Amino acid sequence: MLDHVFLTVSDPQASIAFYTAALAPLGITTRLDYAGEDGPPGHPDLYGLGDAGRMIFWLRRGTAAGGAAHVGFVADSTAEVDAAYAAAIAAGAIDDGAPGARLHYDPRYYAANVLDPDGYSLEFVYKSWQH
Question: How far apart are CA 97 and CA 21, in angstroms?
């Protein structure tokens, strides 16, 4: 199981605004910044998002490599998938697969896909058998 992910973004403030809006429907609403100067030499500034006091998703400034990452976020229902997709689109995401069943995986696999402002692939997914 993963504890956290770092994603390199070209404009941290724009990405913070995007992810704050896009992930809120999934309950990922906690924000925490980490000043790199508080870490070992060369540690980057980090901008975290999470829930229940646990930061799981961190952004850092750098050269973004859009197609280099795909991140799937767990939703607790098909309605959460729909809401996250709508929030992401409203925040500037590019549609990469409207909400619906992903029959090529499983009839119970419900997801929506978008590209974030740096071109990273994001998936909001509900798998009924995992809930």
Answer: 19
